[in-house]
Amino acid sequence: MRSNRRAFVGASAAFAVSAALPARAQVVQPPNGQFLRQLTIGINVTLSGPFEKYGQEIVRGVQAAVDEANLYSPSALYVWALRAFDDRNQTALAISNVSSAAADPTVVAVIGNLTAPMTLACLSQYANANFALVVPAVTADAVTRRGFHNVYRLPASDSNAGQLFASAVLPDKKGASCVAVTLDGDYGYDVARAFVQQAKTDRHSAEMLLFPQDKTDPAAAARTVLDRKPDYVFLAGKTSELGPVAEACRLAGYAGDFGASDGFYNTDTIAKYERVLDGAYVASSLPPLERVPSAVYLLNDFERKVGQITAFSAYAYGAAQMIIAAQQRGNATNRFSFLRTMQQGGTFTTLVGQYRFNVSGDPLIPDIYFYSVQKDGFKYQRPAIRTGFVI
Fold first, then answer.
1. Is it the case that residue 34 has pLDDT exceeding 80?
2. Whole-model pTM?
3. Which residues have CB under 8 Å from 304's CB, separation 6+?
4. d(CA 180, CA 170)
């Protein structure tokens, strides 16, 4: 209960400093005269350009978790801070930021990156620097398939998401023939491939259609889809790219059901394609936070600090929670001891889920959550796997 939590003595907001920290150990003396050692969470994300909004959401999520730890669960020895690095979605700068974080002895772990190319480009640098990397946003399979044992991804991977969607939804559609539609861009292929593999395993007729991202005419793509005479069409991609294909399918006479991947869990889907996708299930890694018992007391404070809660801010909050909990569990005082603590395993309860990780760094029990498309927004339906985390 909030009333039972001890308030942190001193001006904790001053301790939650960000990008301009000098690269040396920090010692903070609160008003009671006790010296506290600073521990820092590094954030290597895009904070300028077209993706600035999403990077800033990650920073705000981490800041909220740091504030929560310092204010309501203060350590007798440490105070938490964050240090944000802007990779500008440029490979060379993203890699350089890892070196800058490693030069700061207070940084115990890094949260990042925002995009798959930046994350993949930095993996070897994170490993060489002995940083535990917590990934809050990138779902690309490749992030955890390169053999690094310092990576911990929170959301379900693309392949896991596709497999979970098919295994959870298709049992209610006995005998349905399925088509998964995707483009050859940076997101969707692995989701569609895993969906089709699981559908076939469950004895459904299933096929994947891969269209070129830059040269796909929605009407022509719709004709190709309908030539297969599907009962169920799974849209594995983004609203802006596959929404027009779904609309063209309806205009061409398709009367069956749609399903859609995480790329459709956004306001554009409701604003532009509510009638086309009415009732369709859209999967998201983000649980309905208002239905998470362990998150109830956090939500009001969290929303007040970050504004509208998004998947980026929520997963960033969860990533910071996990780092703070792991440090406390292992009494880790630097990135080397923190990485050893993470590699020893264990369960972590965060705002967005309960986590144990496999050897590759993916959740041992990944999950996704289904929302149906309604004219007034998304309505939560159920998880793919019922664990008790969401009621």
1. no
2. 0.89
3. none
4. 13
